[in-house]
Amino acid sequence: MAKSSEIVMQKHRVKYKDGLDSQEKARYEGKLQLIDDEDPYEMTASMFSEDVKLLPKVTYPDIVNYLVFSPSPYTSDDLKSYKGLEAYNQFVCGWVRDKATQVINNKCLVKATVLHSQRMSEKPLQPWFIAEKEGRILAAHSALLFVVDATFQLRESKTVTEEKSYWLLPTSVKGVSYKQVRDIDFTSAKTMKKKLDAKLKSGDTTPTICKQKVNNIPDPTVDELSLLFKSLSEINSKPAILSLIPEYQEIYVPQPMKENFPTILTEMRDDSALELNYVDLLKECKNQFREISVTEEQAKAVENSTREQSNSELWYRFRAGRMTASKMKSACCTDPTLPAQSFIKSVCYPESYKFSSNVTDWGCQHEKFARDIFTDKLRKEHENLKVEEVGFFINPNVPFIGASPDGIVTCDCCGQAVVEIKCPFCKKHDSLENASDDKNFYLKKDNDGNLKLNTKHMYYYQVQTQLGVCQMESGYFVVWTEKDLHIEQIVFNNELWKEICDKSKHLFITAILPELIGKFYSRLPNRQPLKPVVNNNLCEKESKSKDNEEELWCFCAQVESGKMIYCDNEECPIQWFHYTCLGISCAPRGKWYCPDCRKLSKFRTKRGKKK
User: Fold this and answer.
1) I want to staple 316 with a disulfide (CB 3.0 to 4.6 A). Which of 351, 488, 582, 605 is the partner?
2) By the 8 A CB rule, do 232 and 242 touch?
3) Is the pLDDT assigned to residue 143 strictly greater than 90?
4) Residue range 271-524 in CATH 3.90.1150.10
5) Residue 83: its pLDDT value, please?
6) Are 596 and 529 in contact (CB under 8 A)?
7) Judging by DSSP bridges, how do beta strands 137-139 and 323-324 pair with one another?
């Protein structure tokens, strides 16, 4: 009977492989080559061992390196987002069970069973991963990785009895039964994770049995409940319980959404574009660019709804994919033929690139104080002056550019002006006179000895972009330290604004849109890693020998025509590319790799090292 069951299981698992399309099947078979072409779905349970000593030494850094730097073509952006932690939630909630290991070709093949948290009756999933014994992950499913990480931590530790404390691992869920509300464990996955991490780190390896304390509390009277509901209705919030009480329900009736928002740029993703080559994708991007528009009404709705700025989810959503003021200097200086992938991804996924440090914390903590001092100083010279905090501005004339000033100054005598405030952490105890002696500081003395913002600095580009987007003629650049305050009025530079619009438009079409629409820089290269490049073969090609006249080149698979450029990767399968197909007009500086080759890790590393 067992043998018959195994045969049926093998047939079912073979169908999984055969049911893949040609590209997916090729990728799947590429992973199997790591383990001598053995298919985990064709292997029987008897071929695996539950001995935890066979598990690879997978740790959290190994998981991060794999998920962030080697994502699948279709989920790379998801892996970098907060939802990527759902895999850990599956582990701590006990949905992952029956892990087992098989060592093949000095590599560890680990598989397990994962239950559906919302559909317990459905057949469980059977993920697997391949890793080296020392922990480097070669191919994986993330939920299973966290199980092995925790198991490895316990394997390396011992209890007071010198036995491994595997009982600390979350208990595998066998099934979900109906219970009364009071008997249900509502502990969140986040809290479970904290408790598990604390146990793993603290060395608390003594099993304990939690006993729930039962309190004999009498039921409330009608008068007591009425008083409670009345008190809740008088606070400045909307407690959910009042939505169930008839006399308080009116304020909970949802209002129709009045805001007329423009399209979120990250929603431009097109699954049919995920397999397009760069040239075809670029054509699609140019077509889609013509469809991007923002009305005056939509721009006002965005600004009004994002005034909490970094504390607003909408602020990140409308920034995503747009060239923002704080990044405009980088956008204008980036070589459009070799755009930095880190820049592209920070534009497309700003929420994934946010961070906190002493520098940012200092600026956030003192910005309001600096604004108040600035307001007090200007109020003496202007009529009815006020400084308002604002949200994210989009200029309908250039809907791919956005800006978030630190405020807008309004007065009866001068109209409106933007405000940008800086509180430099590295100069917080210095006077600005002394700070200007630092060659890297953005304030410099002019011929008259007055401190001025360096017009080559990124902050100058930031203010000019804010003026252009907000359509204002002047703005204030404010620098505050504990010893000094600098207030400088910046006049709109129309010539620089034109340069900003032209360069950012070109970069938006050729670099940002390919990522937004086709995930071009997130998806993995569509061929195997190549050998190291030995020589720099960068050169321009006006014409080649007649012997090669009929050969086809470039993504477009056409014969040579006009200017062409050679990929510096000697094993690039295409080699020669048309300037027109790449959207470039002149030769790039230094080594040049085609859009496909530049995604390979070895070339990204080399460019990083050169810097």
Assistant:
1) 351
2) yes
3) no
4) no
5) 38
6) no
7) unpaired
Task: Identify the residue whose tokens are 């073979």.
Answer: 14
Report the distance separating Cα 34 and Cα 40, nearest Å: 12
Banded model confidence at residue 567, pLDDT cuts 50, 70, 90: confident
Residues in the chain: 611
| Number of neighbouring beta carbons within 10 Å of residue 391 | 20
Residue percentage of the chain with pLDDT more than 70: 73
pLDDT at position 605? 44
Cβ neighbours for 474, distance < 8 A, ≥ 6 positions apart: 417, 467, 489, 490, 491, 492
Long-range own/partner contacts, residues 49-54 (CB < 8 A, 24 or more apart): 49/100, 49/101, 49/102, 50/98, 50/99, 50/100, 50/101, 51/101, 52/151, 52/155, 52/164, 52/166, 53/155, 54/101, 54/103, 54/108
CA distances from 43 to 12, 13, 14, 175 (A): 11, 9, 10, 26
pLDDT at position 500, please? 96
CA dist 466 → 389, 461, 590 (Å): 14, 9, 33
Q: What's the pLDDT band for 496 if we cut at 50, 70, 90?
A: very high
User: How confident is the prediction for the chain on average, in pLDDT?
Assistant: 78
**CA-CA distances (angstroms) from residue 449 to 79, 308, 480?**
52, 38, 19
Give me the phi and psi of 577, to 5 degrees please: -135, 145
**CB proximity list for 91: less than 8 A, separation 6 or greater:** 143, 146, 147, 150, 170
pLDDT in tens, 367-396: 999 999 999 999 988 888 999 999 999 999
| Whether 111 contacts 148, CB under 8 Å | no
- Token look-up 């008259």 returns 448
Residue 74 has pLDDT above 50, yes or no: no
Token representation of residue 385: 């002056």
CB 419 within 8 A of CB 467: no
Task: Determine the Cα–Cα distance for residues 186 and 192; give it in Å rounded to an integer.
Answer: 10
Q: Which of 204-208, 327-331, 425-429, 519-523 has the lowest mean pLDDT?
A: 204-208
* Domain ranges across the chain: 16-156, 223-257, 271-524, 550-604
For 154, residues 6+ apart whose C-beta sits below 8 A from its C-beta are 164, 165, 166, 168, 169, 200
Class for the domain spanning 550-604:
alpha beta
List, edge to edge, every strand of the sheet that includes 128-132. 96-104, 107-114, 128-132, 137-139
C-alpha dihedral, 295 to 296 to 302 to 305, nearest 10°: -140
Instruction: Please give the pLDDT value at position 4.
Output: 45
What is the rounded distance in angstroms from the CA atom of residue 143 to the CA atom of residue 607? 34
Instruction: Give the Cβ contact number of residue 32 at 10 Å.
Output: 17
Query: N- to C-terminal Cα distance for the chain?
Result: 65
Q: How far is CA 605 from CA 34, 251, 532, 536, in A?
A: 24, 57, 12, 16
The answer, as to whether pTM is greater than 0.85, is no
At residue 578, does pLDDT exceed 50?
yes
Name the pLDDT band for 291 (thresholds 50, 70, 90). very high
Stretch among 476-490, 528-542, 582-596 having the lowest mean pLDDT: 528-542
Which SS3 state, helix, strand or coil, does residue 281 take?
A: helix
Could you tell me whether strands 398-403 and 323-324 are parallel, antiparallel, or unpaired per DSSP bridges? parallel
Which residue's structure tokens are 């697997």? 128
CA distance 582 to 279: 7
